[in-house]
Automatic annotation (TrEMBL):
Acidic residues bias (residue ranges): 407-418
Occurrences of domain PCI (ranges): 163-336
Stretches assigned to coiled coil: none
PROSITE patterns: PCI
Name of this protein: COP9 signalosome complex subunit 3
Lineage: Eukaryota, Fungi, Dikarya, Ascomycota, Pezizomycotina
Residue ranges of the region described as Disordered: 382-418
One Gene Ontology CC term in the entry: cytoplasm
Protein family (similarity comment): Belongs to the CSN3 family.
Keyword Repeat listed: no
Amino acid sequence: MEDVIDRLRSFPPPADTTSHEAYESHAYEFLIATREHLSRIIDSSEKAQSLLDPFLAIRPIRDSIIRMDPTCASFTIAHLYLTRLCLLAKAYKIACPVIDRTIFTIPSAADRLFIQHSQGGSENNAATPSYLFEPPMKFTYADHLQYFLYGGMVYMALKEWSKARHFLSIVISCPVVNAVSLIMVEAYKKWVLVNLLEKGMIASVPKITSPVALKTYKALARPYDALATAFISGKWERLRGEAQVGDMIWRTDNNYGLVQQVLLSFRKKAVRCLGDTFAAVTTSDVSQRALSNSMDVRETERYIVALAVQEGFSTSLIHPSKDPNTSMLRFLTDQSEPSIDLEISLEEQLQSQHQKLELLIRNIQTSDSKLELAKEYISHLRKTQKRTDAASKDAAGLSGRKREQNVDIDEDMMDELQ
C-alpha cells in the first residue's frame, strides 16, 4: 500500500515536464503499474476485510484521477476503485469531487487515434489527455454498472437522494438483450426505495429501459414494489405490515436501513399533509391521524420539535390551556417575499446549468465525429449504399417492364380499332 501511495503522490502535473511526449510516456507507464497495484489492493482488502488500508488509499486515488484528467470526463478503472474504497471505509464525501463530474467517454484505442488524427478538434478533445486511452482499459459490462451503483450508494449515504436516483437510473436503463445483470436488479431495488425517500411516490422507470429488464425487475423485486404500493396508500398499518413481512429480505439485500428510513419518511409526510387540511390541530389528533396512536402526547410533542429542528418544519407548538396534556400544533404559512440572496442563488444555478449544457453539447458533437470516423459506421454506410444501389436497379428494371407492357397494350388497342 505504501508503494502505491508514493506512486500516486509522485505523479507530476503537466506543468512540471518540459516535453509533452515525455509526460504522456510517463503517464502511460504510471497507469499500467498503478492499475496492477490497485487491483491487488482491492482483492486483498476484500479478503482481509480491512478498513485501514482502503482509507489510506482513497485520497491519493482521488487526487491522481483529478490530476491526470481535471475534467474527470473519461471513465477509468480508478473511478470504480475509488467508489468501492469509499464505501468500505465509510468515507463518502471524499469521492464527491470525482463522482459529481459527468462522464462522457469510456476510453478505447479508437479514441486515442481520433485525438491524434483530428486537426482543429473541439475544445473537449484538446482538454482530454490522450494517455487515458492507451493501454486499452479492459473494462467489463459489470465495471460500468458497478461504478454507478456504488456512486448511487455513496449519494444515499450522504442523503442526496436526487443524485442517487440519477446514478441508479443509469444502471437500470442500461441496454440488455436476453439476460439481465443482478447488479441491475440490485440497483432497481434501491431505486424504488430512493424514489419513496425523495418524492414519496412510485416513479416510472426511464423510457429507454428494456422491456426484458423491466419484466425481470418486476419478477425479482416484488416485495419492494409491494412496499412502495403500501407507502402511497397512506395507511400506516399496511406499510408497517409489508415492512415486517419482508424483514429478512431487506436484511439479506442490505437494504434494511433504507427501509427504516422509508418508514420514518412516511410519518414525516403524514404530519406535513395535515397542514394541507388544517391550520391548527391538537397533538392528540396528530397522534391519531398521522402516527396511528403509536405515541402519547409527550412523545408526539418531542417528535414535532425534532421535525422542526432537523427538517425545518414550519410549525409552532402552543399550549392554549393550563392543562399540560393539552397542546396544539399550528402550521405556519410562509408569506415572506423573495430575498436578494434567493435571486442570486437562482442566478448561480442557471449559470451552472448553462455551463453544463454547453459542455454536454460539445461532447455530443465529439461523439458524433467519432461515430462518423468509426469502422463500424463506415461499414454500415457501405452496406446501406449497396442496398440503395440494388433497390435503384430493381426499380429501374421494374419501370422498364412497365413501359414494355404499356407498349403492348397500346398495340393491341390499335389492332382492335382497325
